[in-house]
Amino acid sequence: MIRFSVYIIGLFLLCIGTIHGAVYLNLIPSGFTVKEYILFMLQHTETYGIPLGALLIQLSATHKKLTD
User: Fold this and answer.
1) Residue 67 falls within a domain, yes or no?
2) Which pLDDT belongs to residue 67?
3) How far apart are CA 8 and CA 22, in angstroms?
4) How far apart are the first and last CA of the chain?
5) pLDDT value at 63 more than 90
6) What is the model's pTM?
7) What is the number of domains present in the chain?
8) Cβ partners under 8 Å of residue 36, min gap 6
9) Rounded Cα–Cα distance for residues 14 and 9 (Å)
10) How far is Cα 66 from Cα 52, in angstroms, rounded to an integer?
11) What is the pLDDT of residues 28-62, one digit of tens each?
C-alpha cells in the first residue's frame, strides 16, 4: 500500500510539473531565450515536481524496502 501511495504522489507531482512546464513554453514565442526560460523554470517551485515526481515513481517501482 505504501508503494502505491508513493507512486500516486509521484505521478501527481510529475503531472503538475509537466503541465506548468508546458504552459511556460508560451514564454519563448513572447521573446524569452531558452536560457531565460530555463532560469524562469528554476525560479518556480511548481516545476520542481518533474524531477521529484520521477524520482518517487522510480523509487516505488524499484526500491525493495517500501513494503506493500
Assistant:
1) no
2) 55
3) 21
4) 5
5) no
6) 0.79
7) 1
8) 27
9) 9
10) 17
11) 888 888 899 889 989 988 889 999 999 999 998 88
